[in-house]
Amino acid sequence: MLLRLAYLAVTNTFAALRLLPMGDRDKDVEILALRHQITILERQLGVGARARFAPEDRAFLAALLAPLPRDVLRRLRLLVRPDTVMRWHRDLVQRRHARACVPKRRGRPPTVRSIRALVLRLIRENPSWGYRRVHGELTMLGIKVAPSTVWEILKQEGIDPAPERASTTWADFLRSQAEALLACVFIETVTLDGQRQYILAVIGHATRRVRVLGITAHPTANWVA
């Protein structure tokens, strides 16, 4: 079709160049002769019969006649109706845009690596979460991803997307929240002069480091606060 269309474009370009030196009288005579030939062709085809156009003929006529205003197009003597020419032009434009909009890669686009890494991090830091909980956390962070995508990421990594976790154990809670947990305790001691003192100390679950916050003989609530 492209080769035939190129041939039509070249031949009609030379035909247009041939019309340049012709006078208006000669052009009017040729137009009347062509219109009369169309009338003869329509009479031979009969009522209801239609001339058959090849795809390249349709494309060429649509590109040639579509720029004309609708009222001018209706005054032309054509083998087809002006609305048919406009439909050919719309189909030509649609096919061109359809070819330009075809994605280079078929199917669903791959998940962004940063989202994949974030999903695995949330599961690693919160082993009791299922894919639904991870999807909810991503939604609160403003990340739009389908629950099925989270499920596929976990499945590909060999992680159960929906494990049986009716309740979270205390050990699991401590492991997941160790960075933010501190255990505090009062240590009672007696000084050399026999005075009783209370030591307030805390220990970090993640680092196991003990910090002494203060010593007092009267551990009231205000002092602890």
What does this molecule look like?
- The chain contains 10 helices and 3 strands.
- With 225 residues, it is mostly helical.
- It has a 3-stranded antiparallel β-sheet with strand order 1-2-3, with no helix packed on it.
- The protein is rod-shaped.
Whole-number radius of gyration? 42 Å
Compute the average pLDDT: 76
What is the number of E strands? 3
Alpha-beta classification? mainly alpha
Shape: rod-shaped
Gap between N and C termini: 87 Å
Strand content: 5-15%
Helix-strand blueprint:
Layout: H1 2-19, H2 24-45, H3 55-65, H4 70-75, H5 82-100, H6 113-125, H7 131-140, H8 147-156, H9 170-176, E1 182-190, E2 196-204, E3 210-216, H10 221-224
Antiparallel strand pairs: 1-2, 2-3
Helix pairs in contact: 1-3, 3-5, 7-8
Overview features:
225 residues; mainly alpha; three-stranded antiparallel β-sheet; 53% helix; 11% strand; rod-shaped
Quick structural gist:
Helices cover 53% and strands 11% of the residues. By secondary structure, the protein is mostly helical. It is rod-shaped, with a radius of gyration of 42 Å.
